[in-house]
Amino acid sequence: MELIIKKRKPTESVVYDTYWNFAFKRQNIFFDKINNRENNNDEILLKHKFTNAYRASDRVSQYLIREIIYNGINYSKEDILLRILLFKIFNKIETWELLQSQVGDITVNSFDFRLFSEILMDAKNSNETIYSGAYIMTSGKNEYGYKFKHQNHLKLIEKEILNGSLIEKICLAKSFEEVYNTLLKIPTFGNFLAYQYAIDINYSELTNYSEMEFIVPGPGAKDGIKKCFINFGDYDFADIIRYVTDNQEKEFERLGLDFKNLWGRRLQLIDCQNLFCETDKYARLKHPEILGYSNRKRIKQIYKPQKDSINYFYPPKWNLDLK
Which one, 6, 184, 249, 274, has the greatest CB density within 10 A? Predict the structure, then answer.
């Protein structure tokens, strides 16, 4: 991948070095947990919850890869797409396991709008949270006409996957960006979610594109980029994400940081975009005087250790040797 060549490069702020230090520390925490060590002495990272340096290492992504996609069952392409999008729309492990406990294996043949809606309505009436707070999901009421958000999203699944041609369009796409543009046409998804779902689908065998092919910056990443750079020069948000991704080894070396990558896999565009989002949050406490577009000053999520450990598993096509 060639470096971006622009006339005027962006000018870094003090937060730029924090970006690389955050990535280094967060990845060290990841490996420390695997090796049952505890070396973290960063007060911000000890108190608050942050995603991993690599998106695919996060708990929900790991569940998606290991349990939804590669669980040893030979699903059809339609089943895989249904499972990925149904899981990711709610983005909550407990919601998936609730549905699975009552309907069995979730496939195109077992999907039933009315049954799934009743199960989730019962959970909702019991004051259970059925959506993750990670993404802001629009209701879809204008597009599908139901009172409750989960009903509209289930109808989306039924219309776009069961009764539509989405799987064919995705499998025939000529590029990663074409997959994204296909998803972008689906009501309620929008730019950010369409790109996130394209990444999730690309973990499977339905598509096989490089995560270095293209990037769609999310709002949190834009906040982080604004904090990391005094001005952007001739670069736009996507250019800057590619710029830091291309220069990662040089920047870690410059700062004397022995960054441990993912068993030989460099940080990809999606990872560096997410790191900007997490740096935005981290900088709220580390550099409170430097504001992003949203002007947020607090970190809401508090870190709570998970009792169960993760048996890390990544898409086989990445050819990672985890030994």
Answer: 274
